Amino acid sequence: MKEEFILNEDFYQKLKELLRENQIMIEEPLAKHTTFLIGGPADYLVLPDSISQVSSLVKLCNKENMPFYILGKGSNLLVSDNGYRGLIIKIGQEFSQISVEESDTTIAGKYLVKAQAGIMLSKMANEIAEHSLEGFEFASGIPGTLGGAVTMNAGAYGGEMKDSIVCVVVADSAGNILELNKEELKLGYRRSIIQDNHYIVLEAAFAFPKGKKEEIRNKMNDLNARRKEKQPLEYPSAGSTFKRPEGYFAGKLIMDAGLSGFKVGNAQVSEKHCGFVINIGGASASEVRALINEVITIVNHKFGVMLEPEVKLLGEF
Ligand SMILES: Cc1cc2nc3c(=O)[nH]c(=O)nc-3n(C[C@H](O)[C@H](O)[C@H](O)COP(=O)(O)OP(=O)(O)OC[C@H]3O[C@@H](n4cnc5c(N)ncnc54)[C@H](O)[C@@H]3O)c2cc1C
């Protein structure tokens, strides 16, 4: 059972010294902030709109011993039904500026695009296409923020963040602002140094070559049509639930294990794409978690392959 929420007046006052009141939420249901539409309340959720606010929030949490967690669009997240005891720092639309370098000062013939971490990938891909730059089409249908995508080294259809990233501005766990170049980010399959070191992505720069606008648009439309055809976009989910095990496809293993449509409560293995666990209406986090565990056990039993969740878990399970 979740303990009753008691407002920490002192901490709340300190938040009010750093942020405007409309940037601070108390006992905020995280189901409103995740694409699974699942998750209990966070004690505090804040919407900073500048680098200095993020830095000050981290310093405050460290000083006050307040746990904190960074949230983007919540499209790769399963939040516990009990929510989160601490402060959620949401890097969202308040951080969604983008600029495209139009001058000829290109890096090896490529043009620099700088964006803030809260921008949605769809918006960023559109802006890049509008400037006839190619190489970001793969990301246009990933329903998350740039910050989440850099952290996860998000990828699709043969492309990933790693391909075009130049550098990233982050806050470290002490609230200091650092710039990391591509090598320092140690980007790998759905991983980065950002996860390991608990950095907060604030801005990122990418470089893209010029292409033909029409071809770029066509590619984006084609990839998005493929997504719509193959993925259960009509249901809330957090995308591919499992990482791709080496030499296999998670969805195929799950299907071959006879688990298509398998349910725990209102959480279901999608019949359209077995790699997705979907919320068919009012599913709880514990149902999703139980379903994930069942799938892992059955696939391991049948094929000796240990699936690993790609979805991040937040809170108590
Ligand atoms: C229908 C659907 C399709 C999807 N398709 C794909 C796909 O093709 N490829 C793919 O890679 N993913 C896919 N995803 C998963 C997800 O969209 C991506 O992983 C996305 O990049 C996550 O971004 P987010 O802003 O939603 O991150 P969140 O879910 O909010 O967070 C994910 C993780 O990143 C951290 N994080 C978020 N923002 C920051 C930040 N600014 N600084 C530091 N850490 C941060 C969080 O703490 C958390 O650990 C899909 C999801 C859905 C629902």
Characterization of the model:
It is a single chain. This protein has 317 residues and is α+β, with helices and mostly antiparallel strands. It has 3 domains: 9-90, Uridine Diphospho-n-acetylenolpyruvylglucosamine Reductase, domain 2 (2-Layer Sandwich), CATH 3.30.43.10; 95-216, Uridine Diphospho-n-acetylenolpyruvylglucosamine Reductase, domain 3; 232-314, Uridine Diphospho-n-acetylenolpyruvylglucosamine Reductase, domain 1 (Alpha-Beta Complex). The protein has 9 helices and 17 strands. Helix 1 (9-18) runs antiparallel to helix 2. 42% of the residues are buried. The model has no long low-confidence stretch (mean pLDDT 96). Bound molecules: flavin-adenine dinucleotide. Residues 35, 69-77, 91, 117, 142-145, 147-149, 151-152, 154-156, 194, 200-201, 231, 233, 237-239, 312 line the site of flavin-adenine dinucleotide (FAD).
Protein traits:
Uridine Diphospho-n-acetylenolpyruvylglucosamine Reductase, domain 3; 3 domains; binds flavin-adenine dinucleotide; four-stranded mixed beta sheet; 30% helix; 17 strands; single chain; Uridine Diphospho-n-acetylenolpyruvylglucosamine Reductase, domain 1; 317 residues; Uridine Diphospho-n-acetylenolpyruvylglucosamine Reductase, domain 2; alpha+beta; globular
Give the CATH level 1 class of the largest domain. Alpha Beta
Q: Mind describing the biggest β-sheet?
A: 5 strands, antiparallel
Bound molecules: flavin-adenine dinucleotide
Which structural class should the secondary elements be placed in?
A: alpha+beta
Tally of separate helices: 9
What gross morphology would you assign? globular
Helix content: 25-40%
Low-confidence parts, pLDDT < 50 over ≥5 residues?
Answer: none
Mean pLDDT: 96
Distance between the termini: 12 Å
For the record, the CATH architecture of the largest domain stands as 2-Layer Sandwich
The SSE string, one letter per element, is: HEEHEEEEEHHEEEEHHEHEHEEEHE
Strand content: 15-25%
Alpha carbon gyration radius: 20 Å
Total beta strands: 17
The largest beta-sheet arranges its strands as 6-7-12-10-11
Q: How many discrete structural domains?
A: 3
CATH topology of the largest domain: Uridine Diphospho-n-acetylenolpyruvylglucosamine Reductase, domain 3
